[in-house]
User: Which sequence fits this backbone?
């Protein structure tokens, strides 16, 4: 089992550690609900160092990434990040990812469970002057998320973060250490992510928890999951995988057919495929908690399956994501979730389920 550089810090905070994508990671510290609410109302700090990072450089890097990913890489300015997917020829999602454009290279951030398979896939597709490097082992990542995240970082950062736009990044110093700092996150709140080497991230982690003005909570994977579900953010391996397409998953907005050729384009075009399912989010209408792989019904007809489910701390009700037959995918549709043999009523909602997030402030 691998450890991130912050493993001893988690043990010091009495974290409950669990295996996740070959890493021992903190599931929770004080409790999932407590940590979740801390991020929604104040600020929380996550260790996300298990994620993978690749650099792509060379004269043909831009054209290569344009072919490899579904979003339009040519729209990406230096200092900007872009959410995208990488697909098989048949349109199935290999991974969802974020690409950062630097002046002389790109950095791709991939899901922890897919580091090896993604690297192999990309390596096999390389054409022309392109150099691919896996820098995961030398790169650590912490996420500082919540409406007070900017205030927490303000005193230890050289840059005026109020001017940093959503999905933009800078190379700067935090607590005196050089890092890449981006305005990105997975919570629906104002937030920042900090990439750095071992020394930098250890020092910054300590500095963040030294502050006296704010109560800063460490946050584990449990609250990371409940926060992202309230926003209908997908999790690879649960809501999306090689058997789902970006169109079915509601990711058409990052699938740019007008940019020209990319791997999977022909398979994903509407005229070449009849889409039969769509990823939706829903709220329970009675006390019950939906879980992965629970069946979804309308009347007595099974129309789909839950991919993610939880008790929402913000909404105080069961919520979930799942695929349903396309004719039942409209918000307002009443559905039933089969929970251990008993059907419990729910309603499909327009995302996000939690609408008070500060992500766009």
Assistant:
């Amino acid at each position: 089992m691998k450890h991130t550089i912050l493993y001893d810090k988690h043990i010091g905070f009495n974290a409950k550690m669990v295996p996740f994508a070959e890493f021992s990671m903190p599931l929770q510290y004080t409790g999932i609900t407590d940590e979740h609410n801390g991020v929604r109302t104040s600020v929380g700090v996550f260790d996300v160092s298990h994620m993978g990072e690749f650099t792509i450089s060379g004269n043909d890097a831009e054209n290569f990434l344009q072919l490899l990913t579904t979003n339009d890489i040519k729209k990406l300015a230096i200092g900007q990040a872009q959410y995208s997917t990488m697909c098989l020829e048949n349109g199935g999602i290999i991974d969802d990812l974020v690409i950062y454009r630097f002046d002389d290279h790109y950095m791709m951030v991939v899901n922890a469970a897919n580091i090896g398979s993604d690297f192999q896939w990309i390596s096999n597709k390389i054409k022309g002057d392109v150099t691919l490097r896996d820098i995961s082992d030398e790169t650590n990542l912490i996420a500082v998320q919540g409406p007070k995240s900017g205030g927490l970082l303000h005193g230890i950062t050289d840059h005026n973060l109020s001017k940093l736009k959503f999905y933009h990044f800078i190379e700067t110093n935090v607590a005196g250490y050089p890092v890449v700092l981006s305005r990105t996150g997975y919570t629906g709140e104002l937030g920042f992510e900090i990439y750095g080497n071992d020394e930098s991230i250890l020092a910054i982690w300590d500095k963040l928890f030294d502050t006296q003005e704010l109560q800063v909570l460490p946050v584990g994977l449990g609250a990371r999951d409940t926060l992202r579900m309230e926003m209908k953010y997908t999790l690879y391996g649960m809501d999306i995988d090689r058997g789902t397409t970006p169109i079915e998953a509601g990711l058409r907005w990052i699938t740019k057919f007008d940019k020209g050729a990319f791997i999977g384009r022909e398979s994903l075009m509407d005229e070449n495929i009849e889409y039969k399912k769509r990823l939706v989010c829903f709220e329970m209408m009675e006390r019950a908690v939906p879980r992965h792989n629970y069946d979804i019904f309308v009347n007595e007809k099974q129309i789909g399956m839950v991919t993610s489910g939880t008790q929402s701390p913000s909404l105080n009700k069961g919520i979930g994501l799942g695929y349903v037959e396309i004719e039942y995918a409209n918000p307002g549709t009443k559905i039933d979730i089969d929970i251990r043999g008993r059907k419990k009523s729910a309603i499909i909602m327009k995302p996000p389920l939690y609408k008070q997030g500060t992500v766009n402030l």
Q: What stands out?
A: Residues 52-134 form a domain with the Alpha-Beta Plaits fold (CATH 3.30.70.1400). The chain has three domains: 7-48+139-229, 52-134, 276-353. DSSP finds eight helices and 19 strands in the chain.
